[in-house]
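Weekly modeling sync, notes
Attendees: AB, CL, MP (scribe)

Item 1: holo prediction request
CL wants a bound-state model with magnesium ion before deciding which constructs to order. AB pointed out that an apo prediction alone won't tell us much about the pocket. Agreed to run with the ligand included and paste results into these notes for async review.

Input as submitted:
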Amino acid sequence: MRLSELGEFGLIEKIRRSFSVKSPRAPLSIGDDAAALAVSPSSMLLATTDMLVEGVHFDLSFTDFFSLGWKSAAVNLSDIAAMGGIPRFCLTALAIPQGIGSEQIADFYKGFGAVLREHAVLLVGGDTCSSGKGFIITVTALGETEKALLLRRSGARPGDRIFVTGTLGDSAAGLELLRNAEWGMRNKKSEIRNPKSAIGRLAERHLRPVPRVAEGLKIARSGCATSMIDVSDGLTLDLSHLCDESGAGAQIFSGKIPLSNALRGSAGALTGPVLDYALAGGEDYELLFTAPPRKLKCLRGLKIQATEIGIVTKARGIALVGADGKKKPLTPQGYDHFRRR
Ligand code: ADP
Ligand code: MG
């Protein structure tokens, strides 16, 4: 079967079935944001790896090396945050093509180090080699959590409310604006490089995402939430991953999806409606989580920026409820590496 028919997630499911792990030492393996491995009776080691490939995940014509290093660290720490864990260590493997010099790699590690310092994470190893084509970065992040606090994708139950931290859609809009500026369309390069302008803020959110580690920890420690995932592929796709693992469905309310002022203010510079960027655009690295209604007060007490956007349903599938109350089924949209676009 062609990978374009199977899709990225169909392929992962096949690998998962061939290597299904049934061991108390690995209570959580393929299928969540990070694997959770039992290292002592009460604590779990969290392990996750993510690649960034030139031409797929980033374009060096509008991505500086500091931002690339920043993002490589941030996207991995985000998967530890999605488990409610504390990131501790990481390893970096680089395949470097001709044309990239040591100063650029130094800038990459300055950006990488800035995120590591912020979260007190240590770089403890990796691998370095040449690449025939394109710059390839693989980061492995290791973290920890208490066994009782582990937040999986699979714990959502019908009736639970759905929440998301921060705002959605900024990163996908930022990417479109960066591309347009590079191609000399609509936006000027100087404006997009100004972090005080609306489009500059969107570009910054694409280039230097912030992993929600503190929020993830607060949510896990509170015991309020039943499930959690980070929004890397897009809201509908990540919500469908969470629902599939939980054996449930969801309704989300279009009017409740949090959009930043920068995104709303940039509507005229974008090719699509702003809500589409929030629903299907990826790489926001916000946390999407569920909690039963009786925990709403407890959640408010956490004082994190989180918005209630919907409800978990027994009926499978995801529906978008419009301002008029009409429900529209949503086909999970977001980033799949193999689907034809
Ligand atoms: P995320 O977007 O949170 O990084 P992914 O969609 O990349 O998650 O992966 C989903 C799950 O599948 C994770 O548990 C990941 O470890 C696992 N996974 C992805 N690719 C592979 C692979 N080639 N082999 C084994 N496990 C994989
Ligand atoms: Mg994830």
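Recorded for review: The two ends are 18 Å apart (CA to CA).
Action items: CL to compare against the apo run; MP to circulate these notes.
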